[in-house]
Amino acid sequence: MKSQAGKVFSIAENNPSVPGCTISSKENDQLYTFSLAPETSISEETYARPKLWLMMKGIMEVTNHHEVIATLHEGDLYSVPLHTPIGVVAKEEAIYVECEGGETMNAVTAGQVMALKDLVPYQEGKIINRDIINNETTKFVIMSFDAGTGLSEHAAPGDALIFALDGEAIITYEGVEHRIHAGENFKFDHNGRHAVTADHQFKMALLIELAD
């Protein structure tokens, strides 16, 4: 992954749109970021492999044969239908992440809009995990932490990217503490030592690029 490890950042803030333009950037072979200026669009095309769109900012309409079939808002997750012409139109500045799903995707239905943070609940004193993608190259999991829980220090099995979805927590990376809030991101390098301390209720998505 190209993002710098060891600091809190925002994918949305780091990928502003350009008036009248659409922009795409590659994070790795499975992850791309798209930035669309207001009233711009990406024309309809078909997809042969599963893809997930994570809406980072703004409002975006999904079209099929030029008819709106879904509207995405910040925090939404969308599973792109296969073998179906799909395009997007930005109603305001829209920034989203596209993740290659491979053949193993759970808890998502093609064409359905879901609030990513609602895919796992909170439970008193517990940490809850839900795998969304789990294959040979990529793992994408949603996690909830009740206040007072956490993960002790361990090493990442590959480059990993956090999407903070709700609340706040402390990420300790290579011995340095960083507070992260909903809407922010954080990257671990492969084998980077890290821990999570949830002094408040906290939800996050974690995308791991599994090492060969």
Automatic annotation (TrEMBL):
InterPro entries: Cupin_2, RmlC-like_jellyroll, RmlC_Cupin_sf. Gene3D superfamilies: Jelly Rolls. Residues 142-205 form the Cupin type-2 domain. It comes from the Bacteria. This is Cupin type-2 domain-containing protein. It comes from Intestinibaculum porci.
